[in-house]
Design brief:
This is ABC transporter, ATP-binding protein. Keywords: ATP-binding, Nodulation, Nucleotide-binding, Transport. Belongs to the ABC transporter superfamily. GO terms for molecular function: ATP binding; ATP hydrolysis activity. This protein is of the alpha/beta class. It has a single domain, classed as 3-Layer(aba) Sandwich (Rossmann fold), CATH 3.40.50. Helix content is 37%, strand content 27%. Helix 5 links the parallel strand 7 and strand 8. It binds adenosine-5'-triphosphate (ATP). Adenosine-5'-triphosphate binds next to strand 2 and helix 1. The site of adenosine-5'-triphosphate (ATP) has 12 residues, from strand 2 and helix 1.
C-alpha cells in the first residue's frame, strides 16, 4: 500500500522553479530518505506533504487522500523544533496532547520514558541541549500515534551517540508498522537507516527506489557511488 504518492508535482514561486515534475511513491512500512544538497527541494516536498505548501501542478495523495485530509495521521519534526522554550518539557507535550485530544496521560509518561526525558519532565525546555530538544520533539510527534512520520533533517547538530539513538529508534518505529520519510544530506546515515531513497537536485528527483535495487541497477557498491553517478551523468542529461 502506498502511503505517499507524488505524481508530476511542480512548485513554482515567483519565477523560481523549486520542484520540477517530481513523481515518487512511498510504501507502507518503509523508511524513505530524501537525499540532496542544500536548496535541492527536500523541505519543499515535506511542506507539501504536511499541507503547508500547495503544489503549483501535479497530484499528491497521502494515505489515499488529498493533502490536508489526513493530518491527524501524520507526525512531524521540522527544522525548527517548534517547542516552547519557556514551558517545561511536560507542558510542551501536554499542549500537543490537548491539540490531538490525547487524554491518556500514561501515554505521555511512556513516551517521555522512551526518549529518556521523564526525569527531566519539569525542567524548562530552554535549558535542554539540542539532543534533548530533538528527543522531546520526537516524543511530541508521536503523541497521537501517527501512521506516517515526517522528519526534516532529524539528526543535524546531534552528537554521534544521539544520532545512533535516533537511528535505532526510527528503525524500531518502522518495525512497529510506521512509515517514515526523512530528509538528509548525510549519505552514510541514509545508507544505514533507509530502506528506500530518493535523490533530488535542483528540484529534479533524479532517481528513487530500494537502496539494494539501485545498487544493482547502476552496478555500484555504495550509495555514495550511486549518488555521484546520478549527480554527474543523469543530472547533466536532464538539464
Ligand atoms: N517561500 C519561498 N519563497 C521562495 N523560494 C523558496 C521558498 N521556500 C524555499 N524556496 C527556495 O526553494 C529551493 C529549495 O528549498 P528547500 O528548503 O526545499 O531545500 P532543501 O533541499 O530542504 O535545502 P536544505 O538542505 O538547505 O534545507 C531553494 O532555492 C529555496 O531558496
Amino acid at each position: 500500500m502506498e502511503v505517499i504518492t507524488f505524481s508530476k508535482v511542480s512548485k513554482v514561486i515567483g519565477k523560481r522553479i523549486i520542484l520540477k515534475d517530481v513523481s515518487f511513491k512511498v510504501e507502507k512500512g518503509s523508511i524513505f530518505g530524501l537525499l540532496g544538497p542544500n536548496g535541492a527541494g527536500k523541505t519543499t516536498i515535506i511542506r507539501i506533504i504536511l499541507g503547508l505548501f500547495e503544489p503549483t501542478s501535479g497530484k499528491v495523495e497521502i494515505l489515499g487522500k488529498e493533502i490536508g485530509k489526513t493530518k491527524e495521521k501524520i507526525g512531524f519534526i521540522l527544522h525548527k523544533t517548534g517547542l516552547y522554550p519557556k514551558l517545561s518539557c511536560i507542558e510542551n507535550i501536554l499542549l500537543y496532547a490537548d491539540i490531538y485530544k490525547v487524554h491518556d496521560r500514561s501515554k505521555i509518561e511512556f513516551l517521555l520514558k522512551e526518549v529518556g526525558l521523564w526525569e527531566r519532565k519539569d525542567d524548562k525546555v530552554e535549558i535542554f541541549s539540542r539532543g534533548m530538544q530533538q528527543k522531546l520533539a520526537l516524543a511530541r510527534a508521536l503523541i497521537h500515534n501517527p501512521d506516517l512520520l515526517i522528519l526534516d533533517e532529524p539528526t543535524v547538530g546531534l552528537d554521534i551517540e544521539t544520532k545512533i539513538w535516533f537511528r535505532e529508534y526510527i528503525k524500531k518505529l518502522r518495525e512497529e508498522g510506521k512509515t517514515i520519510l526523512l530528509s538528509s544530506h548525510e549519505l552514510t546515515e541514509v545508507e544505514k537507516l533507509c530502506t528506500h531513497i530518493g535523490i533530488i537536485r535542483e528540484g529534479n528527483l533524479l532517481e528513487y527506489g530500494k537502496v539494494e535495487d539501485l545498487k544493482e541497477k547502476y552496478k555500484k557498491y555504495s550509495l555514495e557511488d550511486i549518488y555521484l553517478y546520478l549527480k554527474d551523468e543523469i543530472y547533466l542529461e536532464r538539464v
